[in-house]
Specification:
This protein has 115 residues and is of the alpha+beta class. The chain is built from two helices and five strands; from the N terminus they run E-E-E-E-E-H-H. Strands 1-2-3-4-5 form a five-stranded antiparallel beta sheet, with no helix packed on it.
Length: 115
């Protein structure tokens, strides 16, 4: 489905329900889109922990570079830290897993874009 089918174009304040996965464990999160610059950037804030994720497109001589980032300048909510410590082996381990997941996502997006 394209962004303009069914639910309309994604705009700031758009809300999403997401299904996250780690091995056989699944959990939902909700987000609010915080910024949309067509063909350049989309950012959203995760309600459960306050982090902001973004995807930015940058033109290059060879094509386009996609940058995915996660920001928590003000830290994350206490419940999120407790959950990460209990279920993911602590913040350092969780952040390593996030980076690995981001790299895997970017690889899949690259493969899809190039096919």
């Amino acid at each position: 489905m394209s962004a303009d089918e069914g639910i309309g174009p994604v705009t700031s304040r758009h809300r999403t329900i997401n299904l996250n996965r780690r091995n056989k464990m699944y959990w939902p999160t909700t987000c609010v889109v915080t910024e949309v610059i067509p063909a350049k950037k989309m950012a959203f804030q995760v309600n459960q922990n306050g982090t902001i994720w973004s995807y930015e497109l940058e033109p290059t001589d060879a094509g386009t570079r996609l940058v995915e980032s996660r920001h928590a300048e003000n830290g994350v909510k206490a419940f999120s830290t407790l959950s990460v410590n209990a279920m993911f082996g602590g913040v350092p381990n969780f952040e390593r897993e996030l980076v690995d997941g981001m790299n895997a996502s970017l690889s899949r997006i690259k493969a899809a874009a190039e096919s």
